[in-house]
UniProtKB/TrEMBL annotation:
Cited Pfam families: DUF1694
Name this polypeptide is given: DUF1694 domain-containing protein
Source organism phylogeny: Bacteria, Bacillati, Bacillota, Bacilli, Lactobacillales
Native species: Vagococcus humatus
Gene3D superfamilies cross-referenced by the UniProt entry: 3.30.1330.30
């Protein structure tokens, strides 16, 4: 038994402590997917509308922690850092070894424990809400058009013959 303990001690010293799901932690800037409430890609961070959406989400859940990819442009980092400070939310700039092509995430808003949020993409959350409101407007327009045409149709059908 003592020999196994010594080998474990030596392995930890040489290779470091074993990590749980290291690829997942790398992708989500040091946290697990189950803890993520919101995520933005590096390209999404460049768009100003996402800063507003991000602020709305921070107000919904102010207790979580913002993780920002250190490879994001400084100007984009500062936009989101200022929003986090404005909402009294803690943040960390995470330095990654390099900008990995399979890791386009620029920002992660995560809890300290598992929350299992199904939809974490900010652009998907707000594109669905705006498309719903857009489809509701279109439905209302078609209903109004059909209501205005209904009397004309009835007049044509039941037209008095003279």
């Amino acid at each position: 038994m003592a020999e196994k303990d010594i080998q474990d001690y030596l392995d930890k010293g040489m290779y470091g402590a074993p990590q749980i799901k290291p690829d997942e932690q790398r992708k989500y800037l040091g946290t697990f997917r189950e803890r993520v409430f919101l995520a933005l890609t590096i390209n999404e961070m460049k768009e100003q509308k996402h800063v507003k959406y991000f602020e709305q989400e921070l107000k919904k859940q102010p207790d979580y922690h913002v993780l920002i990819n250190g490879n994001v442009d400084m100007e984009d980092q500062l936009n989101f850092i200022s929003v986090a400070q404005k909402c009294n939310c803690s943040f960390t700039v995470v330095e990654t070894k390099q900008q990995e092509p399979d890791n386009p995430l620029g920002l992660v808003y995560a809890a300290d424990e598992a929350i299992n949020q199904e939809m974490i993409s900010l652009s998907e959350k707000y594109s669905k809400s705006t498309s719903k409101s857009h489809s509701m407007v279109e439905t209302e327009k078609t209903e109004k058009v059909s209501e205005s045409r209904a009397p004309l149709l009835l007049k044509r059908i039941f037209k008095k013959e003279e």
